[in-house]
Amino acid sequence: MTQTPQPPQTPHQPRTRLRIGPHMVQPPVVLAPMAGITNAPFRTLCREFSGGKGLFVSEMITTRALVERDAKTMRLIHFDGSEKPRSIQLYGVDPTTVGKAVQMIVDEDLADHIDLNFGCPVPKVTRKGGGSALPYKRHLLRSILREAVTAAGPLPVTMKMRKGIDDDHITFLDAGRIAVEEGVTAIALHGRTAAQHYGGTADWEAIARLKEAVPEIPVLGNGDIWSADDAVRMMRETGCDGVVVGRGCLGRPWLFGDLVAAFEPGSGAGSARPTLREVAAVMRRHAELLAEWLADEERGVIDFRKHVAWYTKGFSVGSEMRKRLAITSSLAELDALLAELDLDQEWPPGADGPRGRTSGRNRVVLPDGWLDDPYDCAGVGADAELDTSGG
C-alpha cells in the first residue's frame, strides 16, 4: 500500500526563559535534585558558573522527616542568602503528611518553590510505593497533588516524573492531565521508565508527547543532556519549555556557564574546556565549601570523595592517584595530592559525554500487589513514608 509522504517536522524555536509561577527562570535551565549531590555547596558552585542564572533545586527532602524536624533534614533545607528563588524538592506518599510539610514550608518561609518527586527509581523508595512507582496509583497521585497545591497557596508547585514503571505500565500522560487538573505549575519528565533506571537512551519523543498533551503548563525535559548543545537540541526536537540537567553536571558545575552561553549568545560566556589546573581549583573549592557547610573539615572532605572520579574523568590521572584522592580526609592532604598532578593537561575528549550511573534494572521493587489496580491505594501503609532525607 502506498503511503502519503508526511511533511518533515519543523524544529521548534527554543525558548530563552521559563516561568514557574511568579519566578522567571532565564535561561530555562534547572539543576535536577540528586541525592547527596545537590546540597548547598554544589548549588553554590553551579550558580557561580551560571552567573546566578537558572533554577537550582535542593536534594530530595522527605516530608515525614521535615514535619518531624529531623536534624539532617533541617540542615539540607538551608539555603544560601543569595539563592533566589529557593527551591525544595519533597518526597512523600501520604497526602496528609505532604500537606503538612508544604504548610510548614509556607508558614516558616522555608522556600519559594516546591517540587514533588515522582521520578526516583531507587528500590528503597519504590518498594514503599514512592517516587516513580506512585503515579501508577492515579487517585493517590491526585490526592497528594491536591493537598500540596492547596497548602502551598501562592507558592508554585511543580512535579518531576518518569514515563512509568516499565514499558507495560506507562503513566506519564495520565499523570500529566491529573497534574494540570490539580493546579500544578509545571512538569518535568525524565524520558525513561523506572525499570530503565539510568540505562539505555532517554526517550525524548515522550517529552514531545507530554508537551502536546498538557499545553496549559510548561513541560521540562530531562535525560541525556550531556552538553549545552544537547539542551538546545532537546528543546528544538520536543518543543519543551525548559530542560532539567542531572548527571551531565557531575564533576562539571561549569556546564551551567555553557548553558547560559548557548541560550544567550551575546552574554560573553563561552563553552568551558578547563585545564586540569582549573579543574583542580574547582575541586579544592568544592571540598572547602562542603567543609564549611558541615562545620567539619574532615566530614566535608570525606563527603567530597564521591566527586573525585567525575572531576578527573578523561584526564591522565593514574588509578593509584585516584585511589589516594578518594581517601583524603583533610584539605591539606587534598592540596598536596592535587599538586602532584600534571596540571597543565588540556581538557580531554574523554571527559565529555555520559557520566554517573548508566546501569539499568530489569525489575522494579514495588509493594505487594501494587500493580493489581491502578486506582486502589491499598498497600500504602503508615510506614511508607521514609524517615530520612537526601535519597
From TrEMBL:
PANTHER family: TRNA-DIHYDROURIDINE(47) SYNTHASE [NAD(P)(+)]-LIKE. Its EC number is 1.3.1.-. GO terms for molecular function: oxidoreductase activity. Pfam families: Dus. The gene is dusB. Catalyzes the synthesis of 5,6-dihydrouridine (D), a modified base found in the D-loop of most tRNAs, via the reduction of the C5-C6 double bond in target uridines. It comes from the Bacteria. Its cofactor is FMN. The keyword tRNA processing applies. This is tRNA-dihydrouridine synthase. Belongs to the dus family. The lineage of its organism: Bacteria, Bacillati, Actinomycetota, Actinomycetes, Kitasatosporales. Keywords: Flavoprotein, FMN, NADP, Oxidoreductase, tRNA processing. Residues 31-335 form the DUS-like FMN-binding domain.
